[in-house]
Amino acid sequence: AFAPKSDAIVVVILLLGIGSALSWLLQKNQWQRVADKLIQASVEDWSIRDGGTKESKELRERAIVILAEREKEAEASSTTTNGGDGKQQNGNSSSSGTPSKRLQKKKSKLTSSEKK
Question: Contact at 8 Å (CB) between 64 and 103?
Fold first, then answer.
């Protein structure tokens, strides 16, 4: 009598498992590319013409608010740890002013683009 070397049910289950895993990996890759593009559009403040979307603008606005809150918390903690004089004792005072200047530039750019 003829006996097959492998069970057909095992082969079918194995093929379905491989197909499901491949499908999941392809979807994950596609959504990762979409998320990366959304992040890039938010960080670089792309306009609609450049490929930005309404969601990227909203994401950018929320990120700016969170950044401002974290800067305030960092300033508050630095003033309490430095004795309340507001000066940094480790010599990094020039680097702490730079993000707030960038934030102000980005805020003004964001509001001007919203006016258009």
Answer: yes
Nearest 10 degrees: CA dihedral of 42, 47, 50, 52?
Answer: 40
- 52-65 residue pLDDT tens: 888 888 888 898 89
Express each pLDDT in 68-111 by its tens digit. 999 999 888 888 776 555 454 554 444 444 444 444 444 444 44
Task: Give the DSSP H/E element, type plus range, for residue 48.
Answer: none
Residue 110's nearest CA partner among 52, 69, 70 is 52
* Nearest residue to 107 via CA among 72, 55, 68: 68
Amino acid letter for position 83: G
Q: Which two tokens stand for residue 10?
A: 């095992």
For 71, the token pair is 């800067």
> Does position 113 have pLDDT exceeding 60, yes or no?
no
**Alpha-carbon gap, residue 106 to 103, rounded angstroms:** 5
At residue 29, what is the residue type?
N
